[in-house]
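Before the break, one more example. Copy the sequence into your notebook; we will annotate it together after we see the structure.
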Amino acid sequence: MDKITMAGNKTRDGIKLSHIERALLRIPGVEIESGSKHVAKAVYPGQRPCPIATSTDARRMIVPWVITITSQVYTAAQIYDALRAGVWPYA
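Here is what the structure looks like once it is written out:
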């Protein structure tokens, strides 16, 4: 979280990177690692990593990734709202 918090930036669609990280870390099995091309990346066993950076559009990149890794069915709007709020109320 240090690298994202220090960056203090937002995604392309205006969500704080720290909020995204906080919400994703509440999902069981998700980890945040430093990235080489991006500030960080979310990783989940057996899935392709998801980049987290100022160039990321959360609605187009992170939400579909979360839909793929979660076994429960959440709407894209529910996931996007959770990322914006920086919480994951479904864990």
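DSSP finds four helices and three strands in the chain. The two ends are 20 Å apart (CA to CA). Try to locate both features in your own notes.
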